[in-house]
Amino acid sequence: QVQLVESGGGVVQPGGTLRLSCVVSGFTVGSTIMRWYRQPPGKERELVAAISGPDGIIGYGDSVADRFTVSRDDITNTVYLQMSSLKPEDSATYYCTSQFGHWGQGTQVTVSS
């Protein structure tokens, strides 16, 4: 059974950091492209970051490219999103997804003073 379980969200002040985790079961993260999306309330979904298992290619959305880092751990089958210099506009529900079309339940990030 395929499961993607995100965690690590919370409330943080502007300029702070958070690390999101996406624990995957049912397939190996190293075999596919994993992506992080976010969706603020009332707004469209936005691609944040992607990491390709087979070739290691990494990409970021323009708004986070110099602040977020995506990585994965093939031993624990987990994908991470390290977020730094957080801004209020980063507030959203963050989802991890697989190339196969699987989605997690999301984890809420709120950046507020």
List keywords for this structure.
10 strands; mainly beta; six-stranded mixed sheet
Task: Characterize this entry briefly.
This protein is mostly beta strands and 113 residues long.
Descriptive report:
This protein has 113 residues and is mainly β. 0% of the residues lie in helices and 50% in strands. It has no helices and 10 strands. A 6-stranded mixed beta sheet has the order 2-10-9-4-5-6, with no helix packed on it. A 4-stranded antiparallel beta sheet has the order 1-3-8-7, with no helix packed on it. The radius of gyration is 13 Å and the shape is globular.
Give the helices and strands, then pairings:
Elements: E1 3-7, E2 10-12, E3 18-25, E4 33-39, E5 46-52, E6 58-60, E7 68-73, E8 78-83, E9 92-98, E10 107-111
Parallel strand pairs: 2-10
Antiparallel strand pairs: 1-3, 3-8, 4-5, 4-9, 5-6, 7-8, 9-10
Rg, Cα atoms, Å: 13 Å
Task: Give the termini distance in whole angstroms.
Answer: 40 Å
What structural class should be given to the helix and strand makeup?
Answer: mainly beta
pLDDT < 50 runs, ≥5 residues: none
Roughly what fraction of the amino acids lie in strands? over 45%
What is the helix tally?
0
Helix percent band: under 10%
- Shape field: globular
Name the average pLDDT. 95
| Helix and strand element order | EEEEEEEEEE
Order of adjacent strands in the largest pleated sheet:
2-10-9-4-5-6
Q: Strand count, sense and closure of the main sheet?
A: 6 strands, mixed
By DSSP, the count of extended strands is 10
